[in-house]
Amino acid sequence: MDKIVVNKLDLFYGDQQALNNIGIAMKERSVTALIGPSGCGKSTFLRTLNRMQDLIPSVKIMGQVKIDGQDIYAAGTDVVLLRKKVGMVFQNPNPFPKSVFENVAYGPRIHGETDKKKLSEIVETSLKDAALWNEVKDRLHESALGLSGGQQQRLCIARLLAVGPEILLMDEPTSALDPISTMKIEELISELKDKYTIIIVTHNMHQASRVSDRTAFFLSGDLIEEDVTSVLFTRPAKKKTEDYISGRFG
Amino acid sequence: MPQRKSWVYYNDRLSRYLFISSAVLVSLIILCIIWFVGMQGLSTFREVSIIEFFTSSKWSPDSGKFGALTFIAGSIGTTLIAILLGGPLGLAGAVFLAEIAPPWVRAFMRPATDLFAGIPSVVYGYVGITVIVGLTGKLTNSPTGYGMLAAGIVLAIMILPTVISLSEDALRSLPRTYKEASLALGATRWQTIRRVLVPAASPGILTAIILAMARAIGETMAVQMVIGNSPRFPDSLGSPTSTLTSNIVMEMGNTPFGSTWNNGLFMMAFILLIIALIMIILVRTASRKGAAR
After folding, report:
1. Where's the ABC transmembrane type-1 domain (chain B) (predicted)?
2. Does A74 lie at the interface with B, CB-CB under 8 angstroms?
3. For residue range B192-234, what is the model confidence (pLDDT) as tens digits?
């Protein structure tokens, strides 16, 4: 079943068009990778899916983004509920300057959970789901900024899982990490896709082919091609895609 | 290689000594002030007991009574009122400027705030006399309105620019990612401000509050104009009293140098100096705590 359906999406920064008539559908419980050279609009596109792009002044968005059949740009959309459902992991790990526990408990707290026992249960399950529990269970009340980069990124994933999202948006989640941390995050992604719909922006084509079911190739604000990952990487339909994946530019 | 050293070498040496001597001179001046005020002040206790000075509120130099409690209480009281009124208001202003105001409002308000800080304190005092004293008279049911509340309100207005601009800087210097992370988790703007941004900026905000207190406790002119200048213990918010600074400025001219009275005033100045030093140490601890995180 299609979780996300995007229709004729245009996005402008002031006068400059950054996304051009994008149309794409994403299935529930699958991983979609967005690839393309820098500045092609893949991150911009990702951030339209939880309306984080709205935060930038002078952005204009037209078209339709439907999640579970509801247009998230329709008037009266509750952005808070939307972002609870569509969570995001950023390029650089960005834990709050609080303890590990408080980082994960932040989401449930702002959504009204006050019961201490329940909070610590949520924190524990989320950290376990993010494959971080064993490393931090003895230092839950120390500052999260003392963790390594890879641990911080998994903490951010745990913090996200704690609010109970359905869709996870990942904006180059491993580009600031070392190879071993990258591997751990990739393993995590393949575990998480049993429960969540995941969309990941990546610079790394090997990563796209390792973790994703489908891949979409963006270039200069256009969606050039979208297909099953193995097909897109071996028998691309478009010339531009072939040039990019064979390393002729980008 | 030429054997003789070039002029660049001597120039470097010379400027080095120039800077060192300037630094030494500045430190020397500061130390001399502390030394002079301290010595002069402490010699009060040759004729007045320490206990009397700090615990008695009877200040009548003509009959040999030197109890400075009134002034200490006046200074601390007015400063506390100023912080309680000005601190939250200033923080709210800083949050508004840093997070809520549209760019054009900020472009107008930020320079206005800085201008505020540059207004001479006698102007604040004058506004205090004409506007605030009447108001505090009604509020406290006192015949004149001169007193701690009036001084506290004037000081609260005076410290606003300090609180606003330093707190705003602290909020602005936070990484954008804190805000993004919070909003992406479905937090509202208000939740983000209250639970993430303000706590994360708290060392900077604390610094702002402490510096504002230092300014408030040391302010002389504006306080002197609205406090009433009576050496009476402040038993109500609306009764005329005095602070350390206002009393020094009122009496310093009348006292012969070296007299107990004069020394007593120096001791009050020394108390202010010590308070300022403590504040500076607190600011340093607060900013170190911020850097350590």
Report:
1. 72-283
2. no
3. 999 999 999 998 999 999 999 989 988 888 888 888 888 888 8
> Which of A46, A47, A54, A55 to mutate to probe the B interface, most B CBs <10 Å?
A55
Contact of B186 with chain A, judged by CB distance below 8 Å, is answered with: yes
Q: What are the structure tokens assigned to B127, written together?
A: 């506004």
**Subunit contact A80:B199, Cβ cutoff 8 A:** no
Domain of A237: which CATH number? 3.40.50.300
CATH number at residue B241: 1.10.3720.10
Q: What residues 197-256 of chain B have any CB closer than 8 A to a CB of chain A?
A: 199-200
Angstroms from A47 CA to nearest CA on chain B: 10
- Is residue A10 a part of any domain in this protein? yes
pTM of the entire predicted model:
0.82
Q: Rounded to an integer, what is the distance from CA A183 to the centroid of its chain?
A: 17
Check if the beta carbon of residue A2 is closer than 8 Å to that of residue A29.
no
Whole-number pLDDT of residue B2: 57
Domain assignment of residue B191, given as a range = 72-256+276-292
CB contact under 8 A, A80 and B188: yes
Counted domains in chain B: 1
pLDDT digits (tens, 9 = 90+) for B143-178: 888 888 889 999 999 999 999 999 999 999 998 889
Q: Which of A58, A83, A143 to mutate to test the interface with B (most CBs of B within 10 A)?
A: A83
Q: Please indicate, yes or no, if residue B193 is contained in any of the structural domains.
A: yes
Q: Which two tokens stand for residue B200?
A: 């994360």
- How many angstroms separate the Cα of B64 from the Cα of each of A81, B44, B58, B234, B252? 73, 12, 10, 21, 16
Given an 8 Å threshold on Cβ–Cβ distance, is A80 in contact with B200?
no
- Residue A60 to residues A48, A50, A55, A177, B125: CA-CA distances in angstroms? 11, 15, 11, 33, 50
Cβ partners under 8 Å of residue B182, min gap 6: A96, A106, A110, B191, B192, B195, B196
- How does DSSP classify residue B231? -
A110-113 CB contacts, 8 Å cutoff, 24+ apart? A110/B182, A110/B185, A110/B186, A110/B187, A110/B188, A110/B191, A110/B195, A111/A84, A111/A163, A111/B186
Interchain proximity B186–A110, CB inside 8 Å: yes
